[in-house]
Amino acid sequence: MTGMKPQNDSVSGDPSHAVAKTIEDFDPPKKTNRNKFAFACAVLASMTSVLLGYDIGVMSGAALYIKDDLKINDLQIEFLAGTINIYSLVGSCAAGRTSDWIGRRYTIVIACAIFFVGAILMGFATNYAFLMFGRFVAGVGVGYALMVAPVYTAEVSPASSRGFLTSFPEVFINGGILLGYVSNYAFSKLPLQLGWRFMLGIGAVPSVILGIVVLAMPESPRWLVMQGRLGDAKRVLDQTSDSTEEAQLRLIEIKEAAGIPEDCQDDVVEVQKQSHGEGVWKELLFHPTPSVRRVLIAAIGIHFFQQASGIDAVVLYSPRIFEKAGITSSDHKLLATVAVGFAKTVFILVATFLLDKIGRRPLLLSSVGGMVVSLLTLATSLTIIEHNPGKRLTWAIGLSIAMVLSYVSTFSIGMGPITWVYSSEIFPLRLRAQGTKKGGLQSPLVGIC
Description:
mainly alpha, 23 helices
């Protein structure tokens, strides 16, 4: 009976305390604060995606002046703009093995260095062949950055904010596109021979800054474990996890994928050769299990349809679209493209805050629906304008501009960021680096279609 005394006292002696305790027990759990260190690492890694966005955005306006200065035809302009996808494919293929050899962080530095060289070459190009070579070098750097940043971000992010942080590369791609459009407008006032060279060459500046800043962030904990550096990996996980318990669980998961016993507590261990990535391609492509095959098809499929939706065509040729709509002034066309970049950037920021609240699937379905409606309406308005030559249909021009803005906005709120978030989350940890890159290879490849 004495064992019941404390309970009786708590009920009869201080009923208000018991009630307060009961209410507290039923309170919803407090929202976990976002890990600021993981947030900073994700931002630094994802900022390299600015290079891709800038390269795409700046070429859309620079092409207008390159054509006049170098006296080249539309086909050569289309080849110059569209082949960035082929060139980035080369960088994407090389990035996987490079990041396994030297780590994610130094691979990002290499990406910045390659893009720096490409931007300088384009800025000093004296003819079409020289310009194409610079475009190739810059494209390889873009491919490196495009593949490594999402993988690093996914590996360093805690589970509670992985969707939010993994969408950052798409945020900075859109930011880069906006910077490219602004650069077009800013340098359009220079003489013809200088304007487009400044537009392309100024891209060397952010690549230098990013290459230096990236050195301040830690290495991926997964790569550290694969190198047998468990002590270093544990320190990074302690910094990038929401709790000590989560850090321990993440370390156990990575150790299991690397073939390291769970009870191993050494700071440095020897890791089997296969843990560095050998054999993973065989498991992905040649002898996949039914579950891995479904995941691979889903990853490749979502990347394919992301680019097959036509986003590259709209971004690269938005000045031409506005010209077809009836805008003849170069300044007005460039200002309209700045509005496109602004809309993309705003809505990608909205998407980052909705990803973990609403979920991936609802945003993706809403995005696709909005894109379909926008493109159909844009095609209808442009057709009406084309069949009424000599007439200035203000309502049709306004509708065309609105539909371009609607299209890039709906793309940015779902199909843009969710593609990378989804593909980085669905692969098992042991296949994540190669699996994400395999799916991502479809993105630059089909962009020319």
